[in-house]
Amino acid sequence: MDKPLNNRAWLLVLPVLLLVAFSAVIPLMTVVNYSVQDTFGNNQFFWNGLDWFREVLGSDRIRAALGRQILFSAIILAIEIPLGIFVALNMPKRGFWASLCLVLMALPLLIPWNVVGTIWQVFGRVDIGLLGRALAAMGFDYNYVNDPVDAWVTIIVMDVWHWTSLVALLCYAGLQSIPDAYYQAARIDQASRWSVFRYIELPKMSGVLLIAVLLRFMDSFMIYTEPFVLTGGGPGNATTFLSIDLVKTAIGQFDLGPAAAFSLIYFLVILLISWVFYTVMTAQKETL
Amino acid sequence: MAAPRDHKGWGSALVMTLYLLFLLVPIYWLVNMSFKTNAEITGDFSLFPRHLTFANYRTILTDPSWYMGYVNSMIYVGLNTVISVAVALPAAYAFSRYRFMGDKHLFFWLLTNRMAPPAVFALPFFQLYSAVGLFDTHIAVALAHCLFNVPLAVWILEGFMSGVPREIDETAYVDGYSFQRFFVRIFMPLIASGIGVAAFFCFMFSWVELLLSRTLTSVNAKPIAATMTRTVSASGLDWGVLAAAGVLTIIPGALVIWFVRNYIAKGFALGRV
């Protein structure tokens, strides 16, 4: 990659820069501003130092939300990544059936996130939902509205339903790039199914798989709409994840200072993961 | 010679059938419900609507407070797609063709915006757009969604553009094409599929987002997604209409998905597959 050096290229980037500055930098600076000030209303602010950060970092409620968030992301990755690989390995390789599978699998990805919540709400309810009714008929005491464990299970199944296809589609794209000659060579060597997977398919998928892991981690880490619609963070606080807690503080209670400090810490975590993501993406591009 | 893996056998077919069933049954239940009356939904449990009714859809398509939600969503999603792709095109070209001061940092900074939690931005957006008098307008939501869609469009387009050999640019310049003429007449047709894919993903991510669009609107630009949440909390009973509204939000994505099926993975991975 020896691209010519040309600083006039900045002119081409300028529109993006201005637009994103308006929609990202200004709001972010507002957040920074709030995080170090306090107010008694009337738009009178005074310097508050780092108190909000101390309060947020010491808050049991936020620590609990963070704990739930990490647990949630860990469970999501542990289920969706292996399942996605498994589905990708079983997809038809080409032809009409492959296209049909692609389209049907992508369907959940294109549904507005609150509708995803609604779908699982009407699917899981004990009184009107197919799932709720079926489980009740089988003798399970299932009710995601009252029982924290049921609520968790429902949200996890919903997320698996919503996003496993993303992992599968990415792995499928990786598998498509493996030349047939590799499989023929493996057949001549009488390689077992497992060694074909371990020594041919997995290394070829590792790049896309890394992207899949990072994307799923980031997006599950900031999940908001789907659990908000399904459980509203309840029962109690059982499914209150970081974003739900943040929106409650910021817009529900209008606690600007703590919400802003919380936002900045949240954002720094995301920044760190983005950096890993970027390093992976660019390193991969250079090896291609 | 056919590859051995073209014949995956019944095991694979079974796995795929089960997985697709898992994906489709919840959607089926929503569709099923949207054709039932409320009395049938709550009183009579059945796998098919016994008294097929289109009343739920009629309610939505004749009541302005419902169908305007779709119109509003369409307006800001359309605006956002046009803005995002228009500003991303030259930027993506710059990133794919040149080195310049701070290019890597800039590219990374764009990515961080795609990864930023909307919850962090909800409150400051609300205040920013209220301050400049854009609260509850379509353009406010369109601009807010640029936060994640512009980086996405830049990344996807850069991925497609880097697949076009640079010799084409150089030949065109030698032949006396100006940059604008080259870009519009030669380069854009070459990456037409990339532009289509970028537009599709901008459309989609703007369409599925709820948190920001709900925060930035109250009446005039209220998106369909927010209209739906209001109905749930207010009456809590109108399941039929809710289901019908949900089905109608799935349709736009389902209509165009066939055309981008081979690029879905690329789009979700920000142009990096």
Q: Would you kindly provide a written description of the structure presented here, covering whatever features stand out?
A:
The complex is a heterodimer of chains A (288) and B (273). Chain A starts with 8 loop residues before the first helix and ends with a helix. In chain A, helix 2 crosses helix 12 (256-287). The longest helix of chain A is centred in the C-terminal third of the chain and has 32 residues, at 256-287. Chain A is mostly helical. In chain A, strands 1-2 form a two-stranded antiparallel ribbon. Chain A has helices spanning 9-35, 51-58, 60-90, 96-106, 113-124, 130-137, 148-176, 180-188, 193-221, 225-230, 242-252, 256-287; strands at residues 37-39, 45-47. Chain B folds into two domains: 8-53, no CATH class; 61-268, Orthogonal Bundle (MetI-like fold). Chain B is 74% helix and 0% strand. Chain B has helices spanning 9-34, 38-43, 55-62, 64-97, 103-115, 118-131, 138-161, 166-174, 179-190, 192-208, 211-215, 224-234, 239-256, 264-268. In chain B, helix 3 crosses helix 4 (64-97) and helix 4 packs across helix 12. The longest helix of chain B has 34 residues, at 64-97. At the A-B interface, helix 1, helix 3, helix 4, helix 5 and helix 6 of A face helix 1, helix 4, helix 5, helix 6 and helix 7 of B.
